[in-house]
Amino acid sequence: xxxxxxxxxxxxxxxxxxxxxxxxxxxxxxxxxxxxxxxxxxxxxxxxxxxxxxxxxxxxxxxxxxxxxxxxxxxxxxxxxxxxxxxxxxxxxxxxxxxxxxxxxxxxxxxxxxxxxxxxxxxxxxxxxxxxxxxxxxxxxxxxxxxxxxxxxxxxxxxxxxxxxxxxxxxxxxxxxxxxxxxxxxxxxxxxxxxxxxxxxxxxxxxxxxxxxxxxxxxxxxxxxxxxxxxxxxxxxxxxxxxxxxxxxxxxxxxxxxxxxxxxxxxxxxxxxxxxxxxxxxxxxxxxxxxxxxxxxxxxxxxxxxxxxxxxxxxxxxxxxxxxxxxxxxxxxxxxxxxxxxxxxxxxxxxxxxxxxxxxxxxxxxxxxxxxxxxxxxxxxxxxxxxxxxxxxxxxxxxxxxxxxxxxxxxxxxxxxxxxxxxxxxxxxxxxxxxxxxxxxxxxxxxxxxxxxxxxxxxxxxxxxxxxxxxxxxxxxxxxxxxxxxxxxxxxxxxxxxxxxxxxxxxxxxxxxxxxxxxxxxxxxxxxxxxxxxxxxxxxxxxxxxxxxxxxxxxxxxxxxxxxxxxxxxxxxxxxxxxxxxxxxxxxxxxxxxxxxxxxxxxxxxxxxxxxxxxxxxxxxxxxxxxxxx
Amino acid sequence: xxxxxxxxxxxxxxxxxxxxxxxxxxxxxxxxxxxxxxxxxxxxxxxxxxxxxxxxxxxxxxxxxxxxxxxxxxxxxxxxxxxxxxxxxxxxxxxxxxxxxxxxxxxxxxxxxxxxxxxxxx
Amino acid sequence: xxxxxxxxxxxxxxxxxxxxxxxxxxxxxxxxxxxxxxxxxxxxxxxxxxxxxxxxxxxxxxxxxxxxxxxxxxxxxxxxxxxxxxxxxxxxxxxxxxxxxxxxxxxxxxxxxxxxxxxxxxxxxxxxxxxxxxxxxxxxxxxxxxxxxxxxxxxxxxxxxxxxx
Lengths: 630, 122, 165
Fold this sequence. Notes:
The structure holds three protein chains of three kinds. Chain A contains 19 helices and ten strands. Among the domains of chain A are: 1-157, no CATH class; 421-501 and 608-628, no CATH class; 503-603. In chain A, helix 10 (240-265) runs antiparallel to helix 11 and helix 11 (269-291) runs antiparallel to helix 12 (305-328). By secondary structure, chain A is of the alpha+beta class. Chain C is an alpha/beta fold. Chain C has helices at residues 2-21, 70-83, 97-107, 121-125, 152-161; strands spanning 40-42, 48-50, 59-65, 88-93, 111-117, 133-138, 141-147. In chain C, the strands form two sheets. Chain C has a five-stranded mixed beta sheet with strand order 5-4-3-6-7. A two-stranded antiparallel sheet of chain C has the order 1-2. The N and C termini of chain C lie far apart (56 Å). At the A-B interface, helix 13, helix 14, strand 1 and strand 7 of A face helix 4 of B.
């Protein structure tokens, strides 16, 4: 009964949003005869979508196996929290979540924006049209309320990998980011139709920040989950779906830098519009790559080419519309005489670098597909390629991050600039020597990157110091900037340590045997069998000692799930600021006295997550700033 | 729709693969084996390298890499051998050919064009 | 300039569309049209099984399988059918004799010779990445590779490819 109501609400969404879509199309053929109140439509479709989502959630919670999605992705033995998160642990439910976030952002915009009623109406006309396209996709190809008769008594089970808190909240955060970019697309395209005025920048700003913050957290959560769940301490794999989430993040980061300048100095309007539209196009492209089955990836949902064609149509039409609007209304906005050595020049260079990096990652991800269509070749592009381009590109980025804040607006001189920061450069030299001294036994690459990370952190702190020195209050904007940049520095240090400086010990370990790694003694106490709610676990017990004293017991597991007969490894981690002790247990040896144990020490890993936190924090500070200004 | 996924031993990411008895005694050779392992794709997994996959083919490829290293073959020889048997797909960094050159050319051209377009004298 | 951008745009969309028709999981064999690899392994019957046994026999089939592989059981009837027309050779991957013999007794054996690939290295020699895989060999050259079980609908392709010209 409830699920039928859910479907009805979905249909209502389709019908109501079609009015916005119809007007959008019609207004291009004929000038408006009458103006619809799209704000009312927005409120309605948000209410309907939310109701639909609630009814789907209810169906999952009561284990209503008459619905296909519940039967395939849930199980009565499942802990209640995973019955809840299972709602978006599948294609249909997650697209409904997509729609919910889209209507939610429309709703928030209608209530909270400082824009004029007329402008809001135009923005929501576009936003509602986007919702119309997505809801039609849901109803015609991915209906979560589809039923089967006769229906099974018991469900398949939620993929055990998804039965995990980190992975449970990763999609909502991601979508609040990804899909939040829909509103910046709508705002920018509406501004184009209006004959762009500068005011739209102020309206756009908070939405850019809030979406970026969520996407940053979403990517960070995914990475953190991969680290502790996949059993060998890796956190980024250049998998197509990871790349797909990174692409809009990169352009949104460029947009972030652009928009604060655009607001203050009334330049970069073009950049702002282009980046806004591009970011959402990349979000859609990412969705296409993940859900169409066109690429091989760990994240791939149901590989259904029909859905693929539909998403491709969505991607093509929405992208075309945005690009078309931009090219048609390309009045000369902004200045054209920017010199490279200036604040504007630095930010422009940053945009160019970000776009180039985005393009490169995009090419790397999609190239196998293009090569197979154009040349019938079957190639792979993986981590070695991406790492080999990322590492050299880090240098100009870091240089820009450090030098940028010290350049003057207008026109600056390279020699004068270097003179201004000569104390800073001296400090960098000292820091580098210090880092090298502390780490001289380690590979040179790790020394370089850790030093660079320290440079960024020091440079940011130096900026604050300069303000304090002149007895000035530190502006809020600077606080936001340095917090975020410090986040990047911490991220670089953490990522470098965790990957390059990783120490490993893999062996057959006897019960009672103790091994030394870093300054820990890891004693294997044995394996016991534990019964979980929907699995059976082989739990290894390890006593961790430092200088003879036990500091912790770690319990890595190997879980065998009842319903789907799948196996997962749950690593056990002991974190500290110096690094993580990471233990995973394998199989028992033939002679039954030894077990395969895998023990790693990953230096500085925790700084990755702290770095992401600082990034989000910096973004939040900027977000709050953008709200308070009149 | 999907071709019959034949019996490929895809265990959902129980991917902590390398067993203690696979590891070579010679630390340098083992390090070389790891480096080679990172370049080779597990053909039946979703985008994993042979080091971190539990699949049968990954285990066998790890084994043959180590056997060849102990025989004294070079990294290039070993990778070429596996490439000759499995084709381009097994390499995570494609060989430099007319149909793959775009992979490097496109990004570089993009960057150069964009920089010149933006900073040009008007 | 604008038209150029739109052309690029539509070109990309077209490529993505074409990409949907392809299966990203399919890995083509690198041995097609090349000489069969040299090998010499122990056979189930005890004698040596080498590449010479596959050459100069016109068209032959080489099937990689194992008794622990469920799809291999599925394709067995088709292999038995084919063995009436063409010689079928097999290589059992990581199969113990004591597991293989009863399996063959139960299902019947289409194989003239069965090589034993105990360590998986022979499979690598042929670029095999899963089971079952079947090669059609003509005059010492690899003509075709079939990945996965040979189903009834695949029999036609096999019969066409192995017709003696």
